[in-house]
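Subject: Protein record for review, amino acid sequence with backbone structure tokens
Why sent: The fold of this protein is of interest and is recorded here as tokens.
Notation: Tokens come from a learned vocabulary of local backbone shapes, not from coordinates.
Attached in line: The record itself begins immediately under this heading.
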Amino acid sequence: MTQQRLVLIVSDRLTAYHWHSGWLECEAGFCPDPPGLRSFAEYLGQHRGSIFRILVLLAEEGFHREDVPYVRGSDRQALLERKLNQHFYGARLMLALSLGRETAGRRDERILLTALNRPLQLDPWLALMSDAEARIAGLYTLPLLAGTLAENTSRAAPLFLLLTLSTGGIHQIVFENARLRFSRLTPLLTDNPEEWADACAAESGRIYQYLVAQRVITHGTALTTVVLAHPGQIGEFRSRCKDSGEIHFVFADLLAESERQGLRNQLRDSRSDALFLHLMVRKPPQGQFADAALRRCHGLSRIRLALRHTGIAVLLGGMLIAGKEGHEYYALREEARQTDLQTELERREYQAALRDFPAPPMAIARLRALVRRYGQLEQRSATLEPMFQRISRALDLSPRVTIDRIEWRGHDSPEAAKAGAVSADIHARLPLALLRDRKEQLQAIDRFSNELASDPGVAVLRLRMPFDVDSGKSLKSGDIEAAGFDAPEFALRIVERR
């Protein structure tokens, strides 16, 4: 995990800390002289992989509140840059914070413009960090970080003053609806808690007069003032910070607040430097003073980290896919091996079964040729069903005709065989009652023949008639008597062409 290192800059000293899981460890202190700057450069070289966050405690911090038209995108950015340059001309570390929008009129946006007006004390340290390509995540001031502590107090008092002590002095921070309005830093030259308490009482009175002069509050309205102090020193602050008609003091436990925020270090006095250093890591605000040039290395490192994580994710995804494909490959290979074993087993069983069969009467090749020829002949064989259907329909329409037998004939010629013709000789007879009526016999036979020949694909030939119908001979009664008393018989040949 990337290590977190915190830098605290006051007017005459820079102190470096190492932060880990809520613990804050002081590593080194540096003075703004050539030896101190060289030592700090060496320190940066030893911790190139760390992420640095900077907390600045300087009195040269300016604030200006202004209402601007509500715009978005690049227009808003250009408007804010123009306003910052108007009020803090020449300043390099500037910031614009939104305080929300007005509720009436055209609903302008309230903007708090702030800057470090004379950052000459910062320039040597920042130059060294830029030269060392340190990964600067942000540059903060204590008022920016104090917004985390203001959330609970703002519910009881929308406008209040927060007094907190640090190595740089007494910070007087005014919040309105949990948003920073302005701040002031008064240096302290003593470590005496009683003098700290006296200074807090005096500074709160000055802030009250300033707010009345700026018409932020009306005269006679009590200003809630929250003093963040060590529980062992709250008694000193209570004895010197007395309530009046103008100021109402509230005392907050510094140790309880530190524990609530997750700081594991035990603070020994009312100075809250460690708490705000810890908040830079745990709850950094969105607004900070470091510009893109200062945060360039940190941005590049984040891009490298994102690419590395993406590469790892792609690698893991590829490994998962490869593992899945490999598992499927081995499963398919095992299945193929089992199939080969089963095939070999069945082949052996087939060979054993062949050895148990009797020897074929002819060669396998010849037998195959015969079977193939038989199949071809079977496909070309004519079916008798259509012929039976035609004969059946003709009999239904010729009730006097009785069939004695049907003789199915082969092909009469090679052409007929090639065409696949089917032919049959129909031997039939008529009722005995028609024996002497040759006209009726002829009509019955003609009717039966015509019914058979009604299909254009069928030809009907008369093979034999019950009497001689030669046109050159005349019909005599003696011929009828000579025919006997058997039923008249006749024969037809029906040929079907496919």
Observations:
- Residues 117 and 299 are 26 Å apart (CA to CA).
- The first strand starts at residue 4 and ends at 10.
